[in-house]
Automatic annotation (TrEMBL), chain A:
Keywords of the record: DNA damage, DNA repair, Isopeptide bond, Phosphoprotein, Ubl conjugation, Ubl conjugation pathway
UniProt GO cellular component terms: Cul4A-RING E3 ubiquitin ligase complex; nucleus
Domain Cullin family profile span(s) in chain numbering: 483-706
Pathway the protein acts in: Protein modification; protein ubiquitination
Low complexity: compositionally biased ranges: 9-85
Family that this chain belongs to: Belongs to the cullin family.
SUPFAM superfamilies given in the database record: Cullin homology domain (SSF75632), Cullin repeat-like (SSF74788), Winged helix' DNA-binding domain (SSF46785)
Protein's recorded name: Cullin-4
Stretch list, region Disordered: 1-99
Record GO biological process: DNA repair; ribosome biogenesis; ubiquitin-dependent protein catabolic process
Automatic annotation (TrEMBL), chain B:
PANTHER family per UniProt: RING BOX (PTHR11210)
Native organism: Capsaspora owczarzaki (strain ATCC 30864)
Descriptive protein name: Anaphase-promoting complex subunit 11
Pfam families: zf-ANAPC11
Keyword Secreted: no
Pathway: Protein modification; protein ubiquitination
Amino acid sequence: MSTGPRLFPSSSSSTSSSSSSSAAPTSASSKPGSLGSPFATSSSSTLPSSSSDPSPLAGGTGRPAAAAAAAGFTSSSAAAMQSSPHHPHHHHALQASSASASSYMMSIGGSSSARKKTEGKTLSIKGFKVAPKLPPNYEQETWQKLQAAVRAVHEARPIDSYLEVLYEAVENLCLLGGGATLYERLTAECESHLRLEAEKLSVASEDPVTFLSVVDACWQAHCEQMITIRSIFLHLDRTYVLQNPHVQSLWDVGLIYFRRQVAEVTVTQRRLITGILLLIEQERAGDSVNRSLLKSLLRMFSSLGMYTEAFEPHFLRATHELYAREGAALITTMPVPDYLAHVEARLQAESERIVHYLDIHTRRNLLATVERQLIEQHIRVLIERGFEELCNANRIADLSRFYSLLGRVNGLEPLRVAFAAYIKKRGAALVCDPEKDKNMVQDLLDMKQQLDTLLSQCFGHNDRFQNCMKESFEAFINMRQNKPAELIAKFIDAKLRAGNKEATEEELETVLDRLMILFRYIQGKDVFEAFYKNDLARRLLHNKSASVDSERAMLSKLKQECGGQFTGKLEGMFKDMDLSKAIMVSFNQSKFASQMGDIELSVSVLTQGYWPTNKPTSMNMLRIQQEFQKFYLQKHTGKQLSWDNPRGDCLVRAAFPKGTKELQVSFMQTLVLLALNAGDGVSFPTIKAETNIGKSSLLRLLQSLACGKIRVLNKNPKGRDVNETDTFDFNTDFVNKHYRLKVNQIQMKETAEENADTNEKVNQNRQYQIDAAIVRIMKARKSLAHQLLLSELFNQLKFPMKPADLKKRIESLIDREYLERDEKDQSTYIYLA
Amino acid sequence: MKVRVKNWSAVAVWRWKVDDDTCGICRMAFDGCCTDCRLPGDECPLVWGQCKHCFHMHCILKWVHSPNANQLCPMCRQEWKF
Ligand SMILES: [Zn+2]
Ligand SMILES: [Zn+2]
Ligand SMILES: [Zn+2]
């Protein structure tokens, strides 16, 4: 508003110094603080903000001129009224002359900039030396002239007199002390006019929308008329009104009368509200309605100070009822994503409604009402009916909407709870069903990635959602003991083994990082360690690692996650491998190397405590093993060596008649092959005696050599399975396009047995760890109550355990005299040094 | 026809050669390590005195340097000599 050209600029004259500096016609003429609530604010601050606002109350350049023209002024005089901001020198001249002026005309000059503009046209200013004598009926006649003009304005007729004449008349009356009378007469005139208008309204059309138009027209006319009247009676506003604090400005008194005579009339008000609500209801139902009419009428309520009390409560009640009905109906029939989209559209439409015609102050209550009825009332049902399904279908857009809508009504906590329940349910289904073990880890990785996407794209990286995801993963992944840890270890093994599918180191790195996140959730990390160790041993001893770098990278990830204690033995395994290479170098330089014949021997010397142990085999040491052992023990006193032959590998040269081949076979397979060097058709018992291998193992070995993909042996009689009655010899017809061949071992059926064995070892190890922890704690504390010892143990040990298990270990330590019970207090233990 | 072995990658496991199972000082297994260590094997070696008694090296070093031990073997009370 402040940028609009001023109709009546304030001047530096003392008579108008308290005039408001605001450019709006309403506020320019109203005295600050001269009105009580609600008018004091309603005429200015509740008005729309832009100067191009079509409201009759907004200060624009066009409207006052047009109003003046409509009231019968010539366009030149109308222009004269608003031109002064462009001619500041007029003020100057005026002030200079007013200082010495003795005439009443000059003494009021400071506030009459508009008049000066007419200099040289219809008016000229002359300084009178003596005040003119007035005719006795001057006041009466002048009023009649003014009254005629006011009536002409009210009746939309041209005014007979020139504006300048009327303006001077007002000035004169005010100067003569007739301000109060003039004010009384003028306002009475306006009031009686409005009374007539109100009577017209009471018989106006029954149709509510038509009625709205009629009231609006009445309001528009009132505003235009008041602008014209005020410009005529400007001097009254500037003098009498300003000088009397309890007198309302002409504009404000116009509003008061309009409110009292028209808008506040019960019937009119009711019809207005009903009509407005009807239009809004129609618009909400999808019809297009006359928004500018609504806007104009609601601005009218604001200007009259009636918006908050007369309109808003009715509007909010109607809104509440509509959306309560709508929500209750749609929540049961509409699919959840559709419902959410609908709510979003509703909120959008209501926001636009505020922009288009509602008062901005209604915004908060309106949106809160819609949110409460459409969202808050139905949070539980929305979540129950739709959340899980949307998550399963990965509906990013719908879930984003879910989150943002519930966020508007403090509904995120129930959503978070539902998210946690969903993760646990879905995760438990993956983890607890043994039939899904084959794909468990990949499925978990996929699930985690999908949920991460939801978290970032739908749930705005919300920390609480992130935490609840972590907790939920921990909860479900530990619902099943040991298996997830085992499968993650196996999954990593597959990735680290030579020939894995990951093309690049970076891809492998990414997968390993994501596996580490799953690993982090697992409580029984020792189970993982045991299986990981088995696999690592296999990769190292059989040279199966894809890359040393990846192995090291994985190790440092584990170290970072679990600390050096966890990875110490794994690192020891790598160290043993390096050390073994050094040992072989010095062995090959020793005198013992000459005893090897044409066999190239390499030995991996393992430190017993680091590696997964195998059951010792009762096999005779071969001669070259004895040679190596002599060499080793000579160098390492205090140590003893045992051989783990089933873990050995050989490269065997086989001179098949149709082409010599090199066979990559296990040491045990090698023993069988060597046994057949004896001759043709060797029987099962002969081989068994020769190799000293147990029956079932031997059957499996023969199966791998005679019935597998690469059949280097013939079996007699032929058949798919090996029997103890069969005889064997080399397959003299053997051909293969490759020179070097790997003969696979029969995949051990006892993988399950092996797993059970590993789990048993884990159990054993846990007992040792518990024992060690108890001794460590008791040694430090000397004496400790049972419960305190238990809580210390729960703090220190990283695997799941039950108090009963711990109690057993304590009993065992008491038996072994590490501890004793306190004689005075049986529930306290004392450390025995 | 015959086959012959060209290369042999064998696996051997070493451990300490001791008669006792546990260290007389810390009571931990010789296959394990002393209470100060985390890893067995070369990280926590065993030593034998001239009296033929065997301990974790870390244990006996601590022991013989303690004021009351008088440089004696804790098992036989003979002077401890490596
Ligand atoms: Zn010891
Ligand atoms: Zn040690
Ligand atoms: Zn001794």
